[in-house]
Amino acid sequence: MTWVTWLQYRYQGAIAAALVAVLAVVLLITGLHAAQVWHSALAGCAKSGSCASLNGTLSLGNPAFTTLILATSAVPLLPGLFWGAPAVASELETGTNQFAWTQSITRRHWLAVKAGWLLLGAAVPAGAVSALVTWWSGPDNALTAGAFCATRFDITYIVPVGYAIFAMALGICAGTLLRRTLPALAVTLAGFAALRVLTTWLRPHYMTPVTAYYKVTAAAFTSAGPYLGISQGFIGPNGQTPPSTSTESVYNSMAVPAVCQQANDANSRWPYLSDR
Amino acid sequence: MTPVIETVGLTKRYRRVIALSDCTISVPEGRISALVGPNGAGKITLLRLLAGLAAPTGGRAKVLGGPPREDPAYLAEIGFLAQDIPLYRRLTAEDHIGIGAHLNSRWDGQLVRERLADLKIPLDRRAGTLSGGQCAQLALALTLAKRPRLLLLDEPLAALDPLARRDFLAALAEAAAGGDLTIVLSSHLIADIERTCDHLILLAESRVQLCGDTETLLAEHRVLTGPRKDTTAIARAHTIVREDTTARQTTLLVKLNGPVIDPAWAVEEPNLEEIVLGYMSADQAGHGTGRLSAVGGER
Fold it and tell me: ipTM, 2 decimals?
């Protein structure tokens, strides 16, 4: 049955491998450049003894590539969508299941081996792309402490592998239950999108956020490690919050609000979810 | 000789509809049995039950000495060719032979290659580019490569042109010539398979109307033609399957319980199609379903 699965998916597998290879070349070229910029900047600021101002002043390369790696958040969906949804549904639609199921193997065996290889076939490309993106994001994560921000967390380390396995399992199940490819495709797409929304919404609630206070007159906020920022704002010396319009303008211009200027011991509040 | 297929009261009920009801049949070894009946009569359901692809909701079946079940040992004995002759369109004949070799413990790939070579069907063309007749021959060859003891064919002729039908039936008859392969072939075109089959199962309205060797069925049925008159005398002695009355004459299909004595009737031997149509239209007329069920030559 392993050989049969290979026979059915060899061309799709080759196309996937080619696409991953193209992405690898692009990310290797731009990633090596970014790493070089980052290390030379680190060496430079270490001499002068102040690396705190790097965030916001240093550019690691064309921001278009940050958008490109953001697009890889769709990668875990693709195997589930194009291989998972038709895996059983297209066999039922064309009747070929009747050929497969009347050889000398049980339907259970047929499905177990096919689904097993497909789940692996979803996890491997997603893992490969994730490994590339994780490596590529290294300097940027260090610069902005942004490894935990939603857009980055979802496309690095093992998270895409989890999403890929979910999408594949959903695609196979939807195709089996709905018995038609197109509706199964739609269900897989909707289920994947719903999971992304759900995890993004749930993630800030996994643990109690840490709230940190900084004087606005001090240097800009720096975190000791990656963090997921939940909210930020200003409070006055007696705990009062400025009107929202002024909070917004302060946030945008990074100017010290009038209400804070009145007292020297004004605090700026930076709540964040720590990585520890 | 123990029959290859023996069912007693086999019933399959889906959530709302009864697909097969109280089906009692018996098919001896080596027969080519025609499973006929109108669309929706339960032919596919019966074949799926026999193949072990579905479980009955009532009654029992004994096929090749045991109940049909989904396990590799049983599936290896069964050849199943589904309606529309499904093959993987993008895979070649050679790929299909490979699939069979990987999914079957007993497999004669060489047999397929030889058959296809005889029929001049290329091994390296995708199945989607072959003609309907070529696909059917490929699918039959693949089914026979399992060396099954029971071959179940679901409407294999439906998609074929007359020439391809003839070739297909010839291949089938050749496969059965050894005598140890039993074939059940569903169709609603009795005329096509009349010459190939030596056994008949007639399903209508999810019930068995006839089951037996064609010779026996032909011997025990007669068409009576005579002037229009009262048929109660005939009905007392024999079983009237179907009655057609015009202004002048009456034509009867009867199942005999002895010789027809009344000289007013012209007695003719019917062909298989007339018998099948007689029972099918009797069923449509709404009478006789209970009376005529499980009529057969074997019991």
Answer: 0.80
